[in-house]
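Weekly modeling sync, notes
Attendees: AB, CL, MP (scribe)

Item 1: holo prediction request
CL wants a bound-state model with iron/sulfur cluster before deciding which constructs to order. AB pointed out that an apo prediction alone won't tell us much about the pocket. Agreed to run with the ligand included and paste results into these notes for async review.

Input as submitted:
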Amino acid sequence: MLQDHGSPANPGVQLDPDVFYACQRCTACCKWPGDVRLEPHEVTRIAGFLDLTEDEFVARHTRLRSDRQGLSLIEKANHECIMLAGAACRIHPVKPGQCAGFPNRWNFPGWREVCAAIPVPNAV
Ligand code: SF4
Ligand code: SF4
């Protein structure tokens, strides 16, 4: 069974204030099973970016989160996010905070084994 790699609410967060992890755009985190959380303001922003009404965006591209407390982007049958097109995110300029925040603002135990981000020292 595929592992759900958690969410920003994951209690196992381990942050290192001295290191920034530079994303290598391997897209692994766009292919993990589980929720891609959407906050209400993100629904508005992403719908506008896609030139859809909010109702159209919600109907076509979202589902209830596993905790039923909000919306998630739909995942394809292979667990890729519905917004992943090849190696690119269709909504990169307005992607959800969950995507923008990983792995520097949230992560989970063992995340470095499944993410290609490279550590670089934070500027002082
Ligand atoms: S898994 Fe890590 S390196 Fe790969 S796209 Fe996601 S954040 Fe970037
Ligand atoms: S919204 Fe974009 S960055 Fe976030 S999981 Fe989907 S494809 Fe990846």
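Recorded for review: Strands lie at 19-22, 37-38, 62-64, 71-73, 84-85, 88-89, 118-121.
Action items: CL to compare against the apo run; MP to circulate these notes.
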